[in-house]
Amino acid sequence: MKQLICPSCQTRVFFEQSDCVQCGEALIFDTAQSNVVSAASAMSCANRDLIACNWATDESDPFCPSCRLTRTIPNLVSDRNVALWKRVEQAKRRLTYDLMRLRLPLAVSSGAHIAFDILSDETAGHPIMTGHLSGLITMNLSEADDAEREARRAAFREPYRTLLGHFRHEVGHFYWEALVDQSQLISPFRLIFGDETRDYGEALAAYHNRADRSWNSDAFISEYATSHPWEDWAETFAHFLHIVSTLDTASSLPLSLDERSRHTLDDPYLERDFEALLSLWDAVSYSMNELNRSMGMSDAYPFHLTQAVRGKLHFVHLAILKTRSES
Question: Which domain-ending residue is among 42, 61, 80?
Answer without folding.
Answer: 61
